[in-house]
Structure prediction request, 172 residues.
Amino acid sequence: MEKSIKLNLGCSQWKLKGFTNIDRDKSVEPDVVMDIKCPLEWEDDSVDEIYCGHFIEHFNIDDAIELIKECYRILKPTGQVIFTIPDYQKIFNEMDFINANKTIMSNERKEIDGVGIPIDAHRSIWSKNFLERIMIDIGFLTEVVLMHDYAVANVNWQTIIIGKKQYDKKQQ
Prediction:
């Protein structure tokens, strides 16, 4: 029986059991130290599951979209990817834009959610609708499965989207 391949890309200190936890920062002690760049080194249709938790926003928008395309390419026909993103649209809907920018993107604010991640590490801004549209355009079937109850400035701000690779059984 073939062993399943599950990747946790950009894992930071959040390791997932049963996954190969990958990060470029060796101080977080990932299973594999790797700077994740496109093209990804896995073969087409070779990976069962990919988890990207608060990862794609650390890429500029073009590189993030390329990474999503690469996830689609390397997933098996029955595979899935899970993206957890900070949903800035939810934040902006709850706050006026001036205060949202002061709170979220201010140079004086050095952390997100008290975790100690430098705010300037974010290179792109995402929302549920934007990520879903990109994923559908690439070919994923999408499902929003959970909105976390964590808050930045008293706003529930996380969105989790599962993308399943579209698969035509006639291709077998």
